[in-house]
From TrEMBL:
Family under the similarity heading: Belongs to the 6-phosphogluconate dehydrogenase family.
GN (gene name): gndA
Assigned EC number: 1.1.1.44
Subunit structure as annotated in this protein's UniProt entry: Homodimer.
Organism listed in the record: Kineococcus endophyticus
Keyword check for Signal: no
Protein name: 6-phosphogluconate dehydrogenase, decarboxylating
InterPro entries, per the entry: 6-PGluconate_DH-like_C_sf, 6PGD_dom2, 6PGDH_C, 6PGDH_Gnd/GntZ, 6PGDH_NADP-bd, 6PGdom_BS, NAD(P)-bd_dom_sf, Pgluconate_DH
Length: 484
């Protein structure tokens, strides 16, 4: 065969990725379970590069030069296993099989181990940026062996977006490392969007600002510390009127029940196993879940009392004279909460890397997230710098730049949380980020009492601040302390 690389699975992502690869001059073999998509790709975009269509799996495999490199871009889960099972018997030792879908990193570990036995290099590669990113330059998080990366790396670096001349693709680590980091990226994306939504809610209903006015606020924020793709598109969504009615903001006719495809949930499930408190991501996943419980919400509305939740009809809770201050407070609270969410996400990357022995470089992850992906932001340059200065940074919050930024914003942050509570506008992301921050900096935590309770009801023992060892009190006996 003559093709340098192949793509199987030509739905939106696979098709655009194949076009991106071909546009970069690679002879690209293309294949899809149903022929129609393969034909359509070659007919519509055949002039963008050199495509070699394969209408059977055998034809596809034979069209590739050895050692073969094949990217699978199909539905995650069982379909990916089905495609691997079909391809593997046709491959030779040394071939590289890439999964570019949103696989769970544990599936990637399992597949990598099974294919390694057959001498096939399996690389789980996280691809972020949606269909537009796949075509024009995604952020890519490749996992897999060094050997696979040697061949794959240069191609991925070519098709990834670049920021300041650096491609947003780098070898993350072996087996599931790439998909793990992609999962955490998506978790952070959930947290970031939740915080933005809370900022909107507080300004909309707490201050009584219109979506159009808030589009301007977010546009202004986008020229400061918060500059990011998500803040930019927030302004666009808030500025948009319903295309079917004049003068009605689109955001007011969109059903307020958020959906999820599951990567945020995976992040939280995995974080529980690793014991990493990603409270910002968890709040975001649970806030979406609560929004989806429409029946409960409807039943609760007339029954559960509380403040009216904002300016509409209730006069608001911020005097107009203090409005500018409040807008700036919300900006500061958003920034500080965002730093916490990212600090937690990077903690999780470190914990995963330690657990599975991946050797992931957190600064390199910040570097490849600067472009192409949904959480791309100026902010990531700061994270990259923080880890460059101190690769062993115990928490992002302790980097001098971030520590100072959060310290400057913390009074505003506290005021915003107080306002949200007073007005009855839920801001779980802001509040839990603040609780995490206070929990982290507190000299003594309330866990001393928890340990005491555990010793009383379960003889689980406790440690002491003043001497080594484990201790237990004879709670129902003479009340004396024994050493275990
Ligand atoms: P889908 O997830 O909708 O999957 C459709 C593709 O999978 C089609 O090519 C389909 O073939 C193929 N397929 C499904 N079942 C099988 C099977 N049993 N055997 C062989 N092929 C099968 O496509 P997307 O392009 O949206 O996503 C592809 C991957 O990329 C997914 O893993 C997704 O999670 C991931 N991803 C998606 C992003 C996005 O924004 N959409 C962003 C980043 C990653 P057929 O045409 O024959 O039905």
């Amino acid at each position: 065969g003559q093709a340098q690389i192949g793509v199987t699975g030509l739905a939106v992502m696979g098709r655009n990725l194949a076009r991106n690869i071909a546009r970069h001059g690679y002879v690209t073999a293309v294949h899809n379970r149903t022929d129609a998509k393969t034909k359509a790709l070659v007919e519509e975009f055949g002039d963008e590069g050199t495509f070699v269509p394969g209408y059977t799996t055998q034809e596809f495999v034979d069209s590739l030069s050895s050692p073969r490199t094949i990217i699978i871009m199909v539905k995650a889960g069982a379909p990916t296993d089905a495609v691997i099972d079909e391809l593997a018997p046709l491959l030779s030792e040394g071939d590289i099989l890439v999964d570019g879908g949103n696989a769970h990193f544990l599936d990637t570990r399992r597949r990598e181990a099974a294919l390694r036995e057959k001498g096939i290099h399996f690389a789980g590669v996280g691809v972020s940026g949606g269909e537009e990113g796949a075509l024009l330059g995604p952020s890519i998080m490749p996992g897999g062996s060094e050997h696979a990366y040697e061949k794959l790396g240069p191609i991925l670096a070519d098709i990834a977006v670049s920021v300041d001349g650096t491609p947003c693709s780098t070898h993350v680590g072996p087996d599931g490392a790439g998909h793990f980091v992609k999962m955490v990226h998506n978790g952070i994306e959930y947290a970031d969007m939740q915080l933005i939504a809370e900022a909107y809610d507080l300004l909309r209903h707490g201050l009584g600002r219109t979506p159009k006015q808030l589009a301007e606020v977010f546009t202004t924020w986008n020229s400061g510390d918060l500059e990011s793709f998500l803040i930019e598109i927030t302004a666009r969504v808030l500025d948009k009127d319903d295309p079917t009615q004049e003068g009605v903001p689109l955001v007011d006719v969109i059903l307020d029940e958020a959906e999820q495809k599951g990567t945020g949930r995976w992040t939280v499930q995995t974080a529980l196993d690793l014991g990493t408190p990603v409270s910002g991501i968890a709040e975001a996943v649970f806030a979406r879940a609560l929004s989806g419980h429409a029946e409960q919400r409807k039943a609760a509305q007339p029954v559960l009392p509380g403040p009216a939740g904002g300016a509409e009809g209730s006069g608001g809770f911020v005097a107009e004279a203090d409005a500018d201050q409040f807008v700036d407070d919300v900006r500061a609270a958003l920034y500080a909460s965002k730093v916490v969410a990212y600090a937690q996400g990077f903690d999780m990357i470190r914990a995963g890397s330690q657990e599975y022995g991946w050797g992931v470089d957190p600064g390199a992850m910040a570097t490849i997230w600067r472009g192409g992906c949904i959480i791309r932001a100026k902010f990531l340059d700061r994270i990259k710098d923080a880890y460059a200065k101190n690769p062993e940074l115990p928490s992002l919050l302790l980097d001098p730049y971030f520590a100072d930024a959060v310290a400057k914003g913390q009074e505003a942050w506290r005021r915003v949380v107080v306002h949200s509570v007073t007005a009855g506008i839920p801001a779980p992301g802001f509040a839990s980020a603040l609780a995490y921050y206070d929990g982290l900096r507190r000299e003594r935590s309330s866990a001393a009492l928890v340990q005491g309770l555990r010793d009383l009801f379960g003889a689980h023992t406790y440690k002491r601040v003043d001497r080594d060892g484990s201790f237990h009190v004879e709670w129902s006996g003479d009340g004396s302390q024994s050493q275990g």
